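Field reference: sequence -> structure
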Amino acid sequence: MPDEQQRPAGRPRDPDVSERLIAAALEEYARTGWASFTMQGVARRAGVGKSALYRRWATKEQLLIASVESVALPLATTTDSGNLRDDLTEVATRNLRHFLDPTGWATLRITVDFTAAPTMLGPFQERITAASRASITTVFTRAINRGEIAFDVPVLPLAQALVGSILVHVLSMPLDERDDARQNTAAHVEPLVDVIMRAATPHPSP
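Structure field:
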């Protein structure tokens, strides 16, 4: 077998091309949905040849899995700030920025499309749901271990309430307010976190 260094020099690979293709895939899916999502459309949106795309992912399913995981991983991670309110604020801020980003709408569309094609889109929807649930579950588990909240707090409904309220907040937001939401996330997430905190933490007896 010839030595790797003896191969003829070819066109150098763009170190950012994979990131561009993943971003293009999410934007393309957000625009077209599963039925019209194609490798050709992704390559065109990214401004690269189809060969560059197929060298990395052989099918649109593989490409979409990689793309979903690129946004799911940040949603699933969280740092320990030492208290429940700050932890929830961090998670809420990350979700708000996710839904304000064009690529974030791809995850929402996958979830909606899943109702029409559950078998085909199941693996993608499961990754999105698991990522969103993991971060908030971790936050509440830490709060239980610190003694901030009771062990029987209904974690899943509270997690769904927080993510759902953020999504509805973005959906109802006029376009001209979205730049403000990106710049002043605290003002947008604090009222939502307050609702969850009141539901999760014990209230003193009158």
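Note: DSSP finds ten helices and no strands in the chain.
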